[in-house]
Write a structure and sequence with these properties.
Oligomer: heterodimer
Number of strands of chain B: 22
Strand order of the largest sheet of chain A: 2-3-1-4-5-6
Largest sheet of chain B: 7 strands, mixed
Shape of chain A: globular
Structural class of chain A: alpha/beta
CATH architecture of chain A: 3-Layer(aba) Sandwich
Structural class of chain B: alpha/beta
Order of helices and strands of chain A: EHEEEHEHHEHHHH
Number of strands of chain A: 6
Distance between the termini of chain A: 30 Å
Radius of gyration of chain B: 28 Å
Chain lengths: 198, 595
């Protein structure tokens, strides 16, 4: 809206949503844009849904937006849920192989949905489905799902590789920087190759 | 009928409460409210007690109301500041039996450190307020307040000022109101104010306020009194009495139910007179609302905004206006009922993902032990509040920080037995659980308190507190020993290793049977901090019949599979599921050699 891009990261407490948002915010700020961000994290450590929003542009007024242009979901169910956050012509970047089963599904009170592609098509949403778990493992740690996914999302966001690198270097603690740089590169390459195939 | 009595407003409230069927009265002394509890203490059929402070008094009163008896709680104006935390959220939960909060204000500061106008609190909390203007009304309005409280499921404020509380007048006693104690029905979505339930209740509060406004329009407590001049006065409480004497020919809108304001009745006064004044002590509470209707009014520009009024002050203030040319007649603009936001709807077909107690969390074992004992657990605020959600459904209430113990005390006092238990975390105990424990000891409460001591302020991200001595920079400072603190108060107290499910169960069982008041400290450091792997749970698939006992613990590491329970890798090996399994299908293999 008004030249502002809104990106929402959606996932489950403990998945590194807040770090992912910090990387994106630093990247946008490093690219010379104004950035505002907001997170709802009160229940983050207790397995609840977590949302974090980053907005950037020439001039950003509010820390949250009614709709997102891009949703980056680190878990399949949260990705399907996150489709409702997207505005028209939005893009969903989802770790489609990551499933964290909620209690009601464990107790067989509800079913875990899995038709992300169908739900995205129904809404006319552009879907980038990524095996972020596989990529993170290839990079060296399952904990890098968040950054692997950022790598995938970087193909639809307006920043150069150098800007992303600066963002990662600023936001990610030094001791885990290397593995995250790898995860980012692999995530970015995975989507690039998908696009070549299609 | 009995002879007329000559009562102070406070005595009238006490007698009016008993007449209205109140069975429980508590408060903290403070001028000009003190004599109410002193008076109820001398009356038959009502239990009276002084509480340690106004917050605990209100929480105790809420407990008694939930237990099913009509209850009054008394305090001076600044006392409501202390009780503001339970007060604000009580508006959301509502009540069971009627609950009347008596706030005695002190304009002129005869005996107070400020002269705040507590009518603002009724507006702030969106609850109804009654203001008597003499002792007879003080007596009568208590029954009116209880009726409103029960009809609209809300606490009601009865607001007096020094001259009403300490003024005296004749009171004609009325026929006692017959009320039966109400049954208590557990209602988690009404009494446990976690965000998802509080959002629903908050909408009800906003709708209730509009219903109450319609009631205020009809209420005989709000009277349009005809006069013989072209001058009208809006007033409540003692200000009404002063104005009545100062301007005997004026028209009056006398407000007995003074919040929410009956807009149409205000407008009707303007049909009869061309000049209207609001006579009120302290803040322009009515004046601002009348102005918002677009009606011209004489208010604080003439009437002092500080100190007490009297007849002469009122007369001198308004007399010049009576002489002046009346303002141009204007039509009132009735404010529309406020719009409510569309509540967020969960996406259909998508499982919700509420926050849950972590695998291995020791709170779960406390709840598992408590639910065998048929005690109503009055909860508090922290991670452990999550135990109120499915499938544990382990808490009956959550009102505000530190409310568990006072509510337990009031509930048990009103029922005369150990019916409820207070459940409170270590950090919350230091925040505001110590005073109600002192109160429960002093008031000889039959009850149990379980302190869930996980050695941190877990919910907000593991901050330090006086029990751990940890500072924000993680430096170690001095710490307070909870057991010694409880024993210092004089309360029986045991500390139990909360990871020892059997010992915890035994301690809770014995404390539930014991007379008097006891504290159990269920001690186990937060698993998110220790990351302790106590062992591995092994499932005997032959023995497991999927009965669901372990699933009902709500542990995110347990999932029913096709033929047997599956234990997920997030399991910490706490062994609670092993202890509840009746078929011996689960066993714990220790991760390491204990030596």
């Amino acid at each position: 809206m008004n030249g502002t891009t809104t990106v929402t990261l959606a996932g489950v407490g403990g998945q590194g949503i807040l770090l992912g948002a910090a990387v994106l915010a630093e990247t946008a700020a490093g690219a010379g844009l104004e950035v505002k961000a907001s997170e709802v994290k009160g229940m983050a450590q207790r397995g609840g849904s977590v949302l974090s929003t980053v907005r950037f542009g020439e001039h950003v007024w509010s820390p949250v937006g009614s709709h997102a242009d891009v949703v980056i979901a680190t878990e399949l169910l949260e990705g399907i849920r996150g489709l409702d956050l997207l505005g028209a012509r939005g893009t969903m970047v989802c770790a489609s192989t990551t499933r964290i089963t909620p209690g009601s599904v464990l107790r067989r009170e509800e079913d875990y949905p899995d038709d992300l592609a169908g739900a995205a098509a129904l809404r006319g949403v552009r879907l980038v489905a990524v095996d972020a778990e596989g990529i993170a493992l290839q990079a060296g740690t399952l904990r890098a799902v968040n950054v692997a996914l950022l790598g995938a999302a970087s193909t639809v966001l307006p920043f150069s590789e150098a800007e992303w690198r600066r963002g990662l270097e600023t936001a990610v603690p030094a001791r885990i920087l290397e593995v995250n740089l790898r995860a980012f590169e692999l995530g970015r390459a995975a989507v690039a190759s998908q696009e070549v195939e299609s | 009928m009995e002879r007329q009595l000559f009562f102070s407003g406070n005595e009238a409230i006490a007698h009016g409460a008993v007449r209205a069927g109140a069975r429980f009265a508590c408060g903290y002394p403070g001028t000009p409210s003190t004599e109410i509890i002193e008076a109820t203490a001398g009356l038959e059929g009502i239990h009276s007690e002084w509480c340690v402070n106004e917050k605990v008094a209100l929480e105790t009163a809420v407990g008694a109301s939930l237990a099913g008896v009509r209850t009054i709680v008394t305090m001076k104006h600044v006392g409501l500041n202390v009780a503001a935390d339970p007060f604000m959220t009580l508006s959301l939960t509502g009540v069971n039996a009627g609950l009347v909060i008596i706030s005695a204000d002190d304009p002129g500061m005869h005996s107070s450190q400020n002269e705040q106008d507590n009518r603002n609190y009724a507006k702030f909390a969106k609850i109804p307020m009654l203001e008597p203007s003499d002792s007879q009304e003080a007596y009568d309005f208590v029954a009116e307040a209880f009726a409103l409280s029960e009809e609209f499921d809300t606490p009601v404020m009865l607001r007096t000022t020094t001259r009403i509380s300490h003024g005296r007048g004749q009171v004609l006693p009325r026929v006692p109101v017959e009320v039966e104690p109400r049954d208590y029905a557990r209602d988690i979505s009404k009494y446990v104010m976690v965000p998802q339930y509080a959002r629903q209740r908050n909408r009800l509060v906003l709708e209730r306020l509009e219903k109450l406004r319609r009631r205020a329009e009809e209420s005989p407590l709000n009277v349009l009194e005809a006069g013989s001049s072209d001058f009208g006065i809006i007033a409540s409480g003692v200000a009404y009495a002063y104005a009545r004497e100062a301007f005997p020919k004026a028209w009056f809108l006398k407000l007995g139910m003074s919040h929410p304001l009956p807009y149409a009745k205000v407008a009707r006064l303007y049909d009869h007179v061309s000049r209207v004044a609001v006579v009120e002590e302290l803040d322009p509470f009515f004046e601002e609302q009348v102005r918002a209707l677009g009606l011209p009014v004489i208010g604080k520009a003439a009437i002092p905004a500080d100190g007490e009024l009297d007849q002469e002050k009122v007369f001198r203030a308004l007399e010049p206006y009576v002489q002046r040319k009346p303002p141009r007649r204007r039509r009132p603009v009735m404010p529309p009922a406020p719009k409510l936001a569309t509540p967020p709807q969960p996406a259909p077909g998508l499982p919700v993902r509420p926050p849950v107690l972590c695998p291995g969390c020791s709170h779960r074992s406390v709840y598992s032990a408590l639910r065998k004992r048929r005690l109503a657990p009055m909860g508090d605020i922290g991670c452990y509040t999550l135990g109120a959600l499915p499938p544990l459904l382990a808490l009956d209430s959550c009102l505000c920080m530190g409310a568990s113990i006072g509510m337990m005390a009031g509930f048990n006092k009103a029922l005369g037995r150990k019916a409820a238990v207070g459940v409170i975390g270590d950090s919350t105990f230091f925040h505001s659980g110590v005073t109600p424990l002192i109160d429960a000891f002093y008031n000889e409460v039959e009850g149990m308190v379980v302190i869930l001591d996980n050695r941190t302020t877990a919910m907000t991200g593991h901050q330090g507190h006086p029990g751990t001595g940890l500072r924000p920079d993680r430096a170690q400072g001095p710490s307070v020993d909870i057991q010694k603190l409880c024993e210092g108060i004089g309360v029986r107290c045991v500390t139990v290793d909360a990871t020892d499910h059997k010992a915890l169960d035994t301690a809770i069982k014995e404390e539930a049977k014991a007379a008097g008041l006891g504290v159990i400290i269920a001690l186990a450091p937060c698993v998110l901090v220790t990351r302790e792997q106590a062992g591995e749970v092994v499932v005997d698939e032959e023995r497991c019949n999927l009965c669901g006992l372990c699933v009902d613990l709500g542990c995110p590491a347990i999932a029913p599979g096709e033929d047997a329970i599956a234990v997920l890798e997030t399991c910490t090996g706490c062994g609670l599921c092993v202890s509840v399994c009746k078929r011996g299908a689960l066993s714990l293999s220790c991760a390491e050699d204990p030596s």
